[in-house]
Amino acid sequence: MQELFDLFRQLIDPEKIIQIGGLAFVTAVVFAETGLMIGFFLPGDSLLFTVGLFCALNILPTPIGWVILSLIIAAVVGDQVGYWTGRFLGQRLFEKQDSRFFKRKYLDQTRSFYQRWGGSAIILGRFVPIVRTFAPILAGAVQFPPRTFLLYNVTGGFIWVFSLVLVGYGLGSVFPWLRKYVELIALLIIFVSVLPLLRTAWKEHRSRKTTTPSPYK
């Protein structure tokens, strides 16, 4: 059990992921987070930022252009796998019982985000944990047009990877001392990225509260 716990801690730590397997492992994690339903807990945003930072500091000695290209491909392919998974499973996804790695609430949260933003949720959802994993699956389940999805997918994958990796690379080039605070920065990125989900959940809670009649009236 302790070994499994240690493995889980390493999988949610961007620095450990890079140290363990370099760009190959980072690419696999980006694909898994967007292409597999069990990848929702993986550190997407903070991992991309840390990769850019480590490239700038030569901790990850790989040309930044190759890094960005590899991760864009992983993100796009991951979303396509998620989309076709949702298209194949369809309504069965919404009838699936909760398990250790699958919770119905994740689909419900993604559906709320999707209803608010429409097709743009495929692009915007890239920056939101959980939504990033389940948006392509939901798009497939509701029969979103494949060509339109591919366009949103490529656009979102490019913007997500390019922006976060480049921000990390730029800041690392100008402020190399940020290496000391990489864990704190990762936590801050995670906090900021979950704010849209928290906001959506709060609005739904208030909406249910105002529409539910009081039993004391």
Keywords for this entry:
single chain; 217 residues; mainly alpha; globular
Give structural notes.
- The chain has 217 residues and is an all-alpha fold.
- The chain has one domain.
- It contains 10 helices and no strands.
- The protein is globular.
- The model has no long low-confidence stretch (mean pLDDT 82).
Spell out the blueprint of helices and strands.
Layout: H1 2-11, H2 14-35, H3 44-56, H4 64-89, H5 92-95, H6 104-117, H7 121-124, H8 131-141, H9 146-174, H10 182-211
What gyration radius follows from the Cα positions, in whole Å? 18 Å
Mean pLDDT: 82
Distance between the termini: 52 Å
Identify low-pLDDT runs. Answer: none
Total number of strands: 0
Shape: globular
What is the number of independent domains?
1
Task: Describe the main β-sheet briefly.
Answer: none
Strand content: under 5%
Structural class assignment: mainly alpha
Helix coverage percent of residues?
over 70%
List SSEs in N-to-C order: HHHHHHHHHH
User: In DSSP terms, counting alpha (H) and pi (I) runs of 4 or more, how many helices?
Assistant: 10
Task: Describe, in short, the structure shown.
The chain is an all-alpha fold and 217 residues long. It has helices at residues 2-11, 14-35, 44-56, 64-89, 92-95, 104-117, 121-124, 131-141, 146-174, 182-211.
